[in-house]
Design brief:
Blueprint (H helix, E strand, L loop, with lengths): L3 E4 L5 H12 L3 E6 L3 H13 L3 E6 L5 H14 L5 E4 L15 H26 L8 E6 L3 H4 L6 H21 L4 E8 L6 H4 L5 H5 L11 H12 L10 E4 L4
Helix pairs in contact: 1-9, 3-4, 4-6
This protein binds NADP nicotinamide-adenine-dinucleotide phosphate (NAP).
NADP nicotinamide-adenine-dinucleotide phosphate binds next to helix 1, strand 2, helix 4 and helix 7.
Length: 248
């Protein structure tokens, strides 16, 4: 059977590493992105040059109409969906809770939580054996922030990832009998552009003393864990949340 994967936010960072590794392992990959078309185009070039199959679709996961359009593109191009990586996510500049406004919280939760729910819903509608699908697997990209709480940095972001952990546990139980496994990874500090986007490109230097392994992680290290959770090697894993955080 042809294996197909949607990686939301697959144009950069952890999502891009996941898309590249998935294509190497034989998945046809759909990457979604929010605005950076050039980065998505570079990804398609890289994957197709290596003999893989990939498409990129602009779609803001926080908007239901965009998510529906994204899955229609997958239906048209691939016909099936066997794996979803709910990776698209945003953070915000470090700020104490007493200084945050509702727009910031709404935007973080809209992308990180509502986006993950909407994409999971559309994936389940296609994968569920109850609905004529062939089963499948979902990996949600949480964060070790969910366990740390991220005081003085972004408690709102950490709380959005706590919601992802709870979603993973509940959804795994809800769709297990429909042939769908749902797991999560909780990355620690990973070297991507998200830190510069939050206004702190040198964040690693500040938090290094809190990382037992004394280094940041790479997007590839997270991608390898995601691909393992999606694979048959993890066939009895569901509802699992795997820390990829250097011991934090
Ligand atoms: P990144 O380098 O900033 O890349 C983010 C990706 O998500 C981009 O492809 C971006 O698209 C896309 N995206 C953002 N908002 C979106 C939206 N509303 N709809 C669709 N796509 C959207 O981020 P990253 O560091 O790889 O992070 C990926 C995931 O890992 C996030 O969920 C993040 O919370 C989580 N995480 C990261 C770290 C870390 O240290 N890096 C640690 C723990 C967890 P554009 O290119 O169009 O902007």
């Amino acid at each position: 059977m042809n294996r197909t994967m949607l990686v939301t936010g697959g144009s950069r960072g952890i999502g891009a590493a996941t898309a590249i590794l998935a294509a190497e392992k034989g998945y046809a990959v759909c990457m979604s992105y929010r605005q950076n078309r050039a980065a998505a185009d570079r990804m398609i070039e890289q994957i197709t040059a290596a003999g893989g199959e990939a498409i990129a679709v602009q779609a803001d996961v926080s908007l239901e109409s965009d998510v529906l359009r994204l899955f229609e593109a997958i239906d048209r191009t691939f016909g099936t969906l066997s794996a979803l990586v709910n990776n698209a996510g945003i953070a915000a500049p470090a700020r104490r809770v007493e200084a945050i406004d509702p727009e910031r919280i709404q935007s973080i939760f809209a992308t990180n939580v509502i986006g993950s729910f909407l994409c999971a819903r559309e994936a389940i509608r296609r994968m569920s054996i109850d609905r004529g699908g062939a089963g499948g697997a979902i990996v949600n990209v949480s964060s070790v922030a969910a366990t740390l709480g991220s005081p003085n940095e972004y408690v709102d972001y950490a709380a959005s990832k706590g919601a992802i952990d709870t979603m993973t546990i509940g959804l795994a139980k809800e769709v297990a009998a429909a042939g769908i496994r749902v797991n999560a990874v909780r990355p620690g500090f990973i070297d991507t552009e998200i830190h510069a986007a939050m206004g702190e490109p040198n964040r690693l230097a500040r938090i290094l003393p809190t990382i037992p392994m004394q280094r940041g992680g790479t997007a590839l290290e997270v991608a390898q864990t995601i691909l393992w959770l999606l694979s048959e090697e993890a066939s009895y894993c569901t509802g699992a949340i795997v820390d990829v955080a250097g011991g934090r």
